[in-house]
Amino acid sequence: MTESEQEERARLLRAWNGAGRRLAPVPGREPIGERLARLAGEGTGAYDLTDWTDQYGNEDGIVGELERRTAAALGTEAAAFFPTGTMAQQAALRCWAGRTGNDIVALHPMAHPVRWERDALRQLAGLRVVHPTEAPRLPTAAEVRDVAEPFGSLALELPLREAGFVLPSWEELTDTVTAARDRDAVVHFDGARLWECATHFGRSLPEIASLADTVYVSFYKSLGGLSGAALAGPSAVVQEAAAWRHRYGGALFQQWPAALAALVGLDRELPRLPEYVAHAALVAQALHESLAASGVPWWLVWPRVPHTHQFQVWLPYGARELTDAGARQAEETGTLLFRRWTEPAGAPPGMSMHEVTVAGPGLSWSAEDVRAAVGAFLGFLDAARGTASGQGTETGAGRDSGPVAE
User: Fold this and answer.
1) CATH classification at residue 320
2) Is 172 a domain residue?
3) In a domain, 104, yes or no
4) What is the rounded CA–CA span in Å between residue 106 and residue 345?
5) What is the mean pLDDT of residues 164-188?
């Protein structure tokens, strides 16, 4: 990272953390001293802080307590703590490959192991991958039945983040799982964000987890932890995966800070997720209405009604200028609406995307608050671009293009 990039990063962090109003906490972006103090304060209600720190995740310590509470929350026989979800899923899928005698994993090309793990399933785990569909949604039962090759495992990311944190209906999910079983395959849930899926499905976490043979969950993506994940399922499989955890270098000497933060998340954030999901619908609707009335030539709020407390917003401008406009809004008004924008691979040229998260701080936002924040953001964007609102974009789109609403 160059010096100018470091300065820009520091500037963005100051702007984001300095904003008094925001839709969600800025994840992982907090001064070290403040985070340690917060962990110590919140941790007193989650675990006995007079107990000893763990060593290699001993079962009678804080890591063991986290594993037991995770298994209880998901209704599984056992759970094992992993330092990363990448490691947890590789361990699970290679265990299933050995047990089924089939090293092929069926999963979506947008799924995390394909998109973000540098071909680790093949390079490290020796597994092969097939894709039931390339559509930006979870595969259907028919698509699973039509996979040309026999596969040993079907991995489903719930929700599918890259497609907009989307979920199937409960009936579609159960049909897809049944289709995999009909092909003698096991089912693994990539549940990095499984915690917030219960509202959409109208089912409890144990009911959802019971559909799969194993489930991976994250402790920091929705629960606000420091890091870490868990693999949950039958005791025998979890024990085998724990052996692979050791082989992968995941048996860390001390993991108590991550485990304590995870326990805090289970206590404090997990019960509030349904409220976040409900309020995300209000925020998405207000964003939709604001952009529809703004004169912006092309835009997208997706899904139209969020399936979880996260969703996407797309605008026809460069990621750098959009990120800068959001930072200027935070600096000058104290309101943080959008943080960092990206230009995803495969997206149309000139289009940028932002992942909106609605959590505790966002519950106080009314629809009018959202509309006012959108108007201010577009004003900062226009000022940065040196153009009046609605005069088109550098991509060549004009007002006649109309908004893309769904």
Assistant:
1) 3.90.1150.10
2) yes
3) yes
4) 22
5) 98
